[in-house]
Design goal:
Radius of gyration: 50 Å
Helix content: 40-55%
Shape: flat
Strand order of the largest sheet: 1-6-5-4-3-2
Distance between the termini: 101 Å
Number of strands: 8
Strand content: 5-15%
Order of helices and strands: EEEEEEHHHHHHEEH
Structural class: alpha+beta
Length: about 270
């Protein structure tokens, strides 16, 4: 059976109406999904019709009613060749429609057809295969706990171990060999934390000491202990510096000469401008 292809609208005629904006219609009165045929409910006859065209979209030519009497003719619908403009966000509209369809679907239909069962939890790994932080105490306790319940590790004159007992024994021996280095690392870490704590507490400690023993009392004690330099108040304040020139007339004369020299240097630049 030959495949029936949908017809195409090759006509450039329109019904000379203003373009129909999808934003002015209800979201459920049109279908513009990318993977489906575009269709719309005609505003004049309220029947679903296809939207034809690639660039210029128009409602396909159709009659007012598909049912007619034998001697009657088809009456063309005024909505034929109505230009349609997609002025909405198609992805947002599609997401909203999908949410509405999912909410309207019965609860029985929303259940998954395939049943998923929780997997059976895997058995716990033996103690000898657990990769945890191996310290001297943990390795010792693990080795002793294994020996209490293992007959192969306890009995026998040659003191042989089973496979798990040998692994635990080697871990215990390795922890014994690494314990001095770990102890030294812990002590170094503690010393570093103490140094950091002292650095953080040093400003507050110095402030408290100065508030208790500082001020003029320390300055007076320092003045009494050492011989003062002539013309100085204290080592904390420094020597007394004169604030006025020794020869006032000479100082004023020198300032006047410097002013004349500065004015002479500025004069050529002003005349050139």
């Amino acid at each position: 059976m030959p495949r029936i292809r949908p017809g195409r609208n090759r006509s450039k005629n329109t019904n000379r109406r203003a373009p129909l904006l999808l934003s002015s219609m209800k979201p459920e009165d049109f279908n513009v999904r990318p993977d489906e045929t575009k269709s719309i409910a005609c505003p004049d006859c309220n029947t679903w019709r296809r939207i034809m065209g690639d660039k210029v979209l128009k409602i396909r030519e159709h009659c007012v009613s598909d049912c007619r009497a034998e001697d009657e003719k088809h009456v063309m619908c005024p909505g034929t060749d109505q230009v349609v403009v997609i002025d909405i966000d198609v992805q947002r509209w599609q997401a909203r429609q999908n949410r509405l369809l999912r909410d309207a679907m019965p609860q029985d239909n929303r259940r998954a057809a395939q049943q998923f069962y929780k997997p059976i939890p895997a058995p716990a790994a033996p103690v000898s295969r657990i990769r945890a932080e191996a310290t001297l105490e943990t390795t010792r306790q693990s080795y002793l706990a294994h020996r209490q319940g293992c007959t192969r590790c306890v009995g026998g004159e040659r003191r042989q171990h089973c496979q798990d007992g040998g692994i635990l024994a080697r871990r215990y021996v390795l922890a014994l060999q690494e314990e001095p280095a770990r102890r030294e690392a812990r002590e170094e870490l503690e010393r570093q934390e103490q140094r950091t704590a002292r650095k953080l507490a040093a400003p507050a400690m110095r402030k408290a000491q100065w508030a208790k023993h500082g001020g003029e009392g320390v300055e007076n004690a320092n003045n009494r202990c050492s011989e003062r330099i002539a013309g100085s108040v204290s080592e904390f304040r420094g020597p007394g510096v004169p604030l006025l020139p020794q020869d006032v007339r000479r100082h004023d004369r020198r300032q006047a000469e410097l002013g004349k020299q500065y004015a002479a240097r500025k004069a050529p630049a002003v005349s050139a401008a």
